[in-house]
């Protein structure tokens, strides 16, 4: 069966056509698109399918960065970080696809977790995984995604959440000041406001106002480019810039703390998976112990979270892999 799958985010859209037999799927064709360069998702699909034989696609699944809504006329989603509205029935009708499903991007990642190989993961904590117990996945990128994986007969079924928009909880005095800064700057706090590309820029700006480290002219200039978060990350990782380093360290502290929070909330004794576009780029900062120190800082629940496996997903196409598998399972 030939399927169409997509991973749609605020920055990029990945589409793939695969040939599937049962749970085994072989990629036929794949293409990346700059999401912001298109005024709709349909225009991307239209361009991608021009090379495809008419009516060859039997099922499709798209993992989308945004909450999926069930309307009377079918599935609908307003993409969180794009001015797009995606309507499942409209896509199904326009492209003549018999079976089509929209899922949250972290649902797609959740489906993809089981298909990953050892080389796709980096362990931060080995732990003692409990077979078929809940798992969680979270990942910072354009935004902050979070999902819960529940065992369902013979595979893990992902449950989408919007937990990234829950209120940020400070873990020390500096983070209390950060919460005050966010309240003044944004009128509220959330995990996504600090754990995302934009969040890293917020952390840098916060620390800059504190004046504990001076801002270098080089980094200040680089931040006027297209991707200020990348400029900060590069300055910290490659240049060892003091202010950028402090911002990235604070980012890692908060990331580890929220990963531990989610593990406790979901009872994720099956494992924690750190996905998203940022983690592979700062891998050495996640493996140096700082992330896990924050993860384990849970008071009397420290021993509980110390038994939970924690792994970083370094395969950036995990969401696309999951969408392919979800499409292959459509009946």
Overview of this structure, please?
The protein has helices at residues 41-49, 88-95, 105-113, 173-186, 197-210, 217-222, 228-237, 242-266, 283-286, 290-296, 302-306, 318-328; strands spanning 2-8, 12-21, 24-34, 59-64, 68-71, 74-78, 85-87, 99-104, 121-125, 135-140, 144-152, 155-161, 271-275, 310-313. With 331 residues, it is of the alpha/beta class. It has 2 domains: 2-111 and 317-328, Nucleotidyltransferase, domain 5, CATH 3.30.420.40; 118-314, Hexokinase, domain 1 (3-Layer(aba) Sandwich), CATH 3.40.367. Strands 9-14-13-10-11-12 form a 6-stranded mixed beta sheet, with helices on both faces. Strands 3-2-1-4-8 form a 5-stranded mixed beta sheet, sandwiched between helices. A hairpin with a 2-residue loop joins strand 5 (68-71) and strand 6. Helix 3 (105-113) packs across helix 12 (318-328), helix 5 crosses helix 8 and helix 7 crosses helix 8. It starts with a strand and ends with a helix.
Task: Kindly list the characteristics that best describe this protein.
6-stranded mixed sheet, single chain, alpha/beta, globular, 2 domains, 5-stranded mixed sheet, Nucleotidyltransferase, domain 5, 331 residues, Hexokinase, domain 1
Helix content: 25-40%
Q: Helices and strands: which structural class?
A: alpha/beta
What CATH calls the topology of the largest domain is Hexokinase, domain 1
The count of β-strands is: 14
Second rung of CATH, namely the architecture of the largest domain: 3-Layer(aba) Sandwich
C-alpha end-to-end distance: 12 Å
Largest sheet: 6 strands, mixed
Please state roughly what percent of the residues sit in beta strands, choosing from under 5%, 5-15%, 15-25%, 25-35%, 35-45% or over 45%: 25-35%
Described by the principal axes of the CA atoms, the overall outline is globular
User: How many alpha or pi helices?
Assistant: 12
């Amino acid at each position: 069966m030939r399927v169409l799958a997509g991973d749609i985010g605020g920055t990029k859209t990945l589409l793939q056509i695969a040939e599937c037999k049962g749970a085994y799927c072989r990629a036929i064709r794949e293409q990346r698109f700059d999401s912001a360069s298109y005024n709709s998702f349909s225009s991307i699909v239209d361009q991608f399918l021009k090379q495809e034989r008419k009516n060859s696609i039997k099922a499709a699944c798209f993992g989308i960065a945004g909450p999926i809504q069930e309307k009377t006329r079918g599935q609908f989603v307003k993409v969180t970080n794009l001015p797009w509205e995606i309507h499942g029935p409209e896509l199904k009708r326009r492209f003549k696809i018999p079976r089509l499903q929209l899922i949250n991007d972290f649902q797609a990642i959740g489906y993809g977790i089981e298909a990953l190989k050892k080389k796709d993961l980096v362990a931060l904590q080995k732990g003692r995984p409990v077979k078929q117990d809940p798992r969680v996945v979270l990942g910072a990128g354009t935004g902050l995604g979070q999902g819960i994986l529940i065992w369902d007969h013979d595979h893990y079924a992902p449950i989408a959440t919007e937990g990234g928009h829950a209120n940020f909880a400070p873990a020390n005095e500096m983070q209390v000041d950060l919460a005050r800064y966010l309240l003044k700057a944004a009128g509220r706090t959330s995990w996504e406001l600090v754990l995302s590309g934009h969040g890293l820029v917020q952390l840098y700006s916060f620390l800059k106002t504190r004046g504990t480290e001076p801002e270098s002219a080089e980094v200040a200039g680089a931040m006027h480019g297209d991707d200020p978060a990348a400029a900060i990350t590069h300055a910290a990782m490659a240049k060892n810039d003091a202010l950028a380093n402090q911002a990235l360290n604070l980012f890692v502290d908060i990331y580890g703390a929220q990963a531990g929070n989610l593990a406790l909330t979901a009872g994720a004794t099956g494992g924690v998976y750190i996905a998203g576009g940022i983690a592979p780029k700062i891998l050495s900062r996640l493996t140096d112990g700082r992330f896990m120190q924050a993860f384990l800082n849970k008071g009397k629940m420290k021993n509980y979270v110390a038994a939970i496996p924690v792994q970083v997903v370094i395969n950036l196409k995990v969401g696309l892999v999951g969408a392919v598998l979800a499409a292959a399972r459509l009946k």
